[in-house]
Amino acid sequence: MKITVKKGKLAQTKTQSVILLICEDEKKLSGEAAAVDNKTGGLVKEMLKSTDFTGKALQTAVLYAGKNAPFRRILLAGLGKKNELTAEKVRQTVAKAVRHLCELKVGQAAVAPEWNLLPGQKNTLIASMVQGARLGLYKYLPYKTQEKDDSAEMPRLEIICDPADYTLAAAEARKANIIADAVCFARDLVSAPGNEMTPSILARQARKIADGKKLVCSVLGKAKLKSLGMNALLAVAAGSHEPPQFIVLEYKGAKKSAPPVVLAGKGLTFDAGGISLKVAAKMDEMKMDMAGAAAVMAVAHATARLGLAVNLVCLIPAAENMPGGGALKPGDIVRSYSGKTIEIINTDAEGRLILADALAYAYRYKPAAVIDIATLTGACIVALGEEVIGMLGTDDALKAGIKKASEAAGELLWELPLWDMYSEMIKSDIADVKNTGGRQAGTITAAAFLNKFTGDYPWVHLDIAGPAWASKDRPYTPKGASGAGVRLLIEYLKNIQAK
Ligand code: BES
Ligand code: MN
Ligand code: ZN
Question: Which residues are near ligand 2, the ion (C-beta closer than 5 Å)?
């Protein structure tokens, strides 16, 4: 879908449909809504007098505008109560509106930003409208050979604004489009089936987004990983014919000497569980176990396109967890890149193994902060549900920055504690640490395990096992891969830019 900003008046726009965002308690139409209503001889007002459409959150209705209007339809979309309005509601409502039009196969729509919806936040309003529309209409189509037409996208949305607001609106829409591109890119990577998204293919995708100047990609292959001693990553990959890859993306947008933020993303292109094989039910969904990697790659690409004033290093350990003849076994002991030894209790707790090597490797960059993002534990879904990111970490300022970014991005997140007692649960009798801590506090013991491999840098771990994959449609997150963490991390990087 293409979103463009144009100078003009909504009520005078020649288009298939105009979208009006209406609050529940709005007694009187104002601004562009009133002008649109006038063009139709009061059809909108008439509808609002009935109970057919009340402006309740996410409600939609279609009116035909009649001969005197330059637009054919009016799509009314409810925002809910005005005093409860947030950027998140705007994203959801705009998504609902364009999805309704898309179902009607309407190929063109126009909408005006009503600035008083989010007073003093013009940029946020534009960004929310653009992202709601783009993300709501996302579809993954590369493997549909028969039904292309039925699932066609709405090709055009125009944002019509006053000439005085044009520069601001166009600039913000451009940035919001880049961020939406990133979310859709992450969704594409995660949606791709495991046979066509192997560690090597993921590495190829990383090379493709790097331009070699601002964003530089290097990939460490199996031989290099062996010589470095990245044995935890190698151990996870040992049961598969697919060789592991360690992908590095580097971006410099701040002073050369400024310490970078390091993002590490779990890149299991398929997690069968290994010798501790998973049950068959929903095993297909484990193609999404590289959602952390996808998020990190998408953030790197967007950061470079936006030209953010930060230094960024992205580390992506990628492997396939399979039960082949060479596979890692329960009881094995692995000597990790950090030098610490790990007793393997369950080969299905593999994400923490590959991240252990990445977090230890991060130390060489003398980072200002390290954030890892991973579909790490089913326990996180049990604790927080499928829409919420679990956050654990060692640095209060970093955690506060991420919390703030999560609120702005509308990506829900909740902190879990990382008290010392949890690391008792992963003590091994014969090695330095074991890779599982039993049934209790599974998300926390996983983070406590990672913490054994972090340096003294500020560190936060984000468990996206729930939000990475939507089991049902949400307003701007269609069922399937969600792109979780992408908007959150871009927002965080935007906020910490060098002035
Ligand atoms: N990739 C899974 C976690 C997961 C589960 C993500 C469901 C998304 C949805 C991870 O590698 C895993 O298998 N974790 C185990 C850990 C256990 C063996 C300690 C789990 O959660 O069961
Ligand atoms: Mn697993
Ligand atoms: Zn996994």
Answer: 271, 348, 350
Percent of the chain with pLDDT over 70: 99
Closest CA to 284 of 469, 482, 477: 469
The number of the ligand 1 atom at minimal distance from the alpha carbon of 346 is 18
Q: Work out the angle at residue 175's Cα, subtended by the Cα atoms of residues 463 and 191, and round it to the nearest 5 degrees.
A: 45
Model confidence, pTM: 0.97
Q: What ranges do the domains of the chain cover? A: 2-161, 188-495
Ligand number nearest CA of 380 is 1
Ligand nearest the Cα atom of residue 379: 1
**Per-residue pLDDT tens for 386-411?**
999 999 999 999 999 999 999 999 99
Averaged pLDDT of the chain: 96
**CATH for 2-161, options being 1.25.40.10, 3.40.220.10, 3.40.1440.60, 3.10.129.10:** 3.40.220.10
Tell me the pLDDT tens digit for each residue of 469-482: 999 999 999 999 99
What is the SS3 string spanning 138-151?
A: CCCCCCCCCCCCCC
Residue whose CB lies within 8 A of the most ligand 1 atoms, among 373, 375, 377, for a mutation test: 377
Q: Encode pLDDT of 167-181 as tens digits.
A: 999 999 999 999 999
